[in-house]
Amino acid sequence: MLMEASATAFKDSRLRDWRRLVGETGDLADIIVATLSLASTEHNVSRIRLVDFYSIFDQLQKEFPDLIPPLHSTRANDYVYSKKLASALESALSIGIRISNPQFQFLEVEEAIGKGNLDRIQKRAGEAFIERLKPIAKRLSELV
User: Fold this and answer.
1) What are φ and ψ of residue 101, in 5° steps?
2) Distance CA 139, CA 144 (A)
3) Structure confidence by residue, pLDDT tens digits, 93-111
4) Which has more pLDDT, 103 or 79?
5) How is 31-82 classified by DSSP, letter by letter?
6) Measured in Å, how far apart are the chain's first and last C-alpha atoms?
7) pTM score, two decimals?
8) What is the maximum span of the chain, computed from C-alpha positions, in angstroms?
9) How far is CA 125 from CA 34, 70, 87, in A?
10) Contact criterion met (CB below 8 Å) for 106 and 48
């Protein structure tokens, strides 16, 4: 485990600093919100099965390693899981993604909500952040 020593404590360098705000620029939650919002607004993909989300994002990370940080995914049979991705998804649910239907099987970003998400993230992170994620959203729409 990678540990950094400071004057008073050790911290695991793989963990996001707890003092950072959720949705801070470059945060994995921002990447999730922006990517799903772009998929909705530009590729007409407003829903993704929750069970597919992990395997699709794992594939996207492999294809775009410079844009999506390592997810440290594990596999069991056909199921992919990442604790890091689950934590970021939990944060994303509070800043622009919702779980839909009575059985909570889909992540959803309606087009109007997606536009609002993108405007908010663009104001904070800049146009370049959104532009860099467009190829990821396009690829996600192909994988769904």
Assistant:
1) 75, 155
2) 9
3) 988 899 987 677 899 999 9
4) 79
5) HHHHHHHHHHHHH---EEEHHHHHHHHHHHHHH-TTTS-----EEETTEEE-
6) 34
7) 0.80
8) 51
9) 11, 21, 21
10) yes
